[in-house]
Design goal:
Layout lengths: L8 E6 L4 H10 L5 E8 L8 H4 L10 H4 L4 E2 L10 E4 L3 H13 L3 E4 L12 E2 L9 H12 L7 E5 L2 H17 L2 E10 L12 H4 L10 H12 L2 E2 L6 E2 L5 E8 L6 E9 L7 H10 L3 H4 L10 E4 L7 H4 L8 E8 L5 E7 L3 H17 L4
Parallel strand pairs: 1-2, 1-4, 2-3, 4-5, 5-7, 6-7, 8-11, 13-14
Antiparallel strand pairs: 8-12, 9-10, 12-15, 14-15
Bound molecules: NADPH dihydro-nicotinamide-adenine-dinucleotide phosphate and aspartyl phosphate.
EC number: 1.2.1.11
GO molecular function: aspartate-semialdehyde dehydrogenase activity; NAD binding; NADP binding; protein dimerization activity
Catalytic activity: L-aspartate 4-semialdehyde + phosphate + NADP(+) = 4-phospho-L-aspartate + NADPH + H(+)
């Protein structure tokens, strides 16, 4: 019997002190395939052990694997031995830093918005459109065919509200065809606004704020890219521009977990029944689960029958935050259906998606 143990892949986290960065630390500390090797943040944090650089705000204790790692500046040379670098960088700085990392030959999986619109950059919710990683597979194949080593590349994670929205839509579109109309009204947690400086308590206590800068536009176009298809040559994504999407976004006094009230109309007539929609969501098994990825949810979509669910505090941890909860699925008198979806914004909406994407890249031998 073989006694050979598989060595873990070294990984780094940029923006390790932030809201998304802290979630990456929690998810990577005891990961079976990845070893947390490098942490990066701004020059304010660089040179300090992580436990001194970070203002830890998670409800789980800071993992010992991270506490004494010394934070560095976000320079690619510092991360040269990492197989994957996760980015939770402030978008103001992410563009230049991530570009430098890719040019250095590194694999970057990013939460920042900067490269999401690039046609040859996959925008991936790993429980929905993991097939878009074929763009990366094609880049790697072409380089290897020329006798070159694996090139640096970037994969983008979607906006957190978009992730919760498209997770149940993808199996529905695959089974019942494209959507004609999609509307969503979000109730977004304060952790989505980040930790530096963080959403002011006085603004959110006893309150709802009906504006999140840039969020509605991002949901409206990102859904079209994620629900779109790859061109035949697998080099770019063709957005689903035939679908009309409308989003309204609100910040609410919830720590973690974005809730969305969704309504939709399918392009094809007759529309499926409520029972067919529920069955489609319940039966869905995402590729990451089929491949046995370590963080993949057992159930990607949880269909809830209780009339007052999902609720963020009660449902956000389903499948470790990698599962999305859908409740109150019913006919809509204007469109075809309406339902409520809840997703953990820093797990399936951010860092968790990043980790699961890296597991998929590893399973597909693209690292
Ligand atoms: N929060 C969420 O739910 C989601 C966030 N995102 C995106 O993820 C990214 C991170 O968001 P979030 O964690 O909320 O943000 P935070 O404000 O909490 O964290 C920002 C991070 O960026 C670092 N940083 C700031 N300036 C620089 C710099 N000049 N050079 C290097 N590092 C720098 C900070 O380090 P330091 O502590 O040293 O200042 C910190 O680690 C953003 O692009 C955001 O839009 C995406 C989806 C969901
Ligand atoms: N805007 C989101 C979080 C976020 O930063 O999204 P994006 O990465 O798309 O900018 C929220 O407030 O909940």
């Amino acid at each position: 019997m073989s006694t050979k143990t598989q060595t873990k892949r070294k990984v780094g986290v940029l923006g390790a002190t932030g809201s998304v960065g802290q979630r990456f630390i929690l998810l990577l500390a005891n990961h079976p395939n990845f070893e947390l090797a490098k942490l990066g943040a701004s020059s304010r944090s660089a040179g300090k052990p992580y436990k001194k650089a970070v203002e830890w705000k998670q409800t789980s204790l800071m993992p010992s694997q991270a506490a004494d790692l010394v934070v560095t500046e976000c320079k690619p040379e510092e991360f040269a031995d990492c197989d994957v670098v996760f980015s939770g960088l402030d978008a103001e700085y992410a563009g230049a830093i991530e570009k430098a990392f890719v040019e250095f030959g590194l694999v970057v999986v990013s939460n920042a918005k900067n490269y999401r619109r690039e046609l040859d950059v996959p925008l991936v919710v790993p429980t929905a459109n993991s097939d878009h990683l074929d763009i990366v597979a094609e880049k790697v194949r072409l380089a290897k065919a020329k006798g070159e080593k694996r090139p640096g590349y970037i994969v983008c994670i979607s906006n957190c509200s978009t992730a919760g929205l498209v997770a149940p839509l993808k199996p529905l579109v695959d089974k019942f065809g494209p959507l004609e109309i999609l509307t969503t009204t979000t109730m977004q947690a304060i952790s989505g606004a980040g930790f530096s400086p963080g959403f002011p308590g006085i603004d959110i206590l006893d309150n709802v704020v009906p504006f999140i800068s840039g969020e509605e536009e991002k949901i409206e176009w990102e859904a079209k890219k994620i629900l779109g298809h790859l061109k035949n040559d697998k080099t770019t994504v063709l957005n689903d521009d035939s679908m009309k999407v409308s989003a309204q976004c609100n910040r609410v006094a919830v720590s973690d977990g974005h809730t969305e009230c969704v309504a939709l109309k399918f392009a094809k007539r007759p529309a499926p029944s409520v029972e067919e929609v529920k069955k489609c969501l319940r039966d869905y098994v995402c590729e990451a689960t089929q491949l046995g990825c370590a963080s993949a949810p057992k159930q990607a979509i949880h269909v809830l029958e209780e009339q007052n669910r999902p609720q963020p505090r009660l449902d956000r941890e389903r499948d470790g935050g990698f599962g999305v909860s859908v409740g109150r699925i019913r006919e809509d008198p204007v469109l075809d259906f309406k339902f409520v979806v809840l997703s953990h914004n820093t797990i399936i909406g951010a860092a968790g998606s990043g980790v699961l994407i890296a597991e998929l890249l590893d399973a597909k031998k693209l690292l």
